Amino acid sequence: MSGCLEPLFEPGEPIRRLYPDLPGLGASSGDGVSSTRDVLDRVDAFIDEAIGDEPFLLVGESYGGYLSRALVQRRRAQVLGLALICPMVVAEASARRVPPRTVRRPDPELIARLEPVEAAEFTDVAVVESAETLERFRAEVAPGLAAGDPAPVARIRADYGLEEPIERGEPFTAPTLILAGRQDWIVGYRDQWRLVERYPAATFAVLDVAGHNLQFERPDLFGALLRDWLDRVAGEPRS
């Protein structure tokens, strides 16, 4: 997340950024975590510890987007804006409405030069195969894949969905951004459209030539839409 978000901020910009590792990933222990409900509770507790009752912005990507939508329900009075990047909407992979796997910018010579394990991890989600996207993958995605603890990750995946519908009660009216990749065969883009009416201040964008790593497959457009979201948040009237 820091790799795609930090370049959007000017030096000295007065927004404190926090990038927590989810349980079972990076430096966060997965002990005692056996479900998405447990993960949500841990992240909620982290907010109490790191932010308290201050207002904040929330950005979630993929599974993090699923968690972020649930956190909004718990803390909607605190959340000044929500950005969802390729958010998972349907927990069960077989129930997602996803497009067929399509590589829009293939580079077979590049892929042939990679070690088999790296080639498999990169091409598993790549819609744009290029030296630039490979470099971003190596810097921003591969370290996260390597830092996972398989045991808690497996337990979480076995109880992946939350029991109740996430969006309930009144719609969330703070500025929202929902970004999806037109060729995202991991979470798709059609299920995300179902969210729009629950977020009446949302910009919804489906980017062509982009998949589950749209943040560095279409970096200029990604940056423009994220900055627009930040500007919309800043322009909201507050008491």
TrEMBL record:
Coiled coil: none annotated. GO terms for molecular function: hydrolase activity. It comes from the Bacteria. Keywords: Hydrolase. Gene3D superfamilies: alpha/beta hydrolase (3.40.50.1820). PANTHER family: HYDROLASE, PUTATIVE (AFU_ORTHOLOGUE AFUA_4G13070)-RELATED, MONOACYLGLYCEROL LIPASE. This is Alpha/beta hydrolase. It comes from Agromyces mariniharenae.
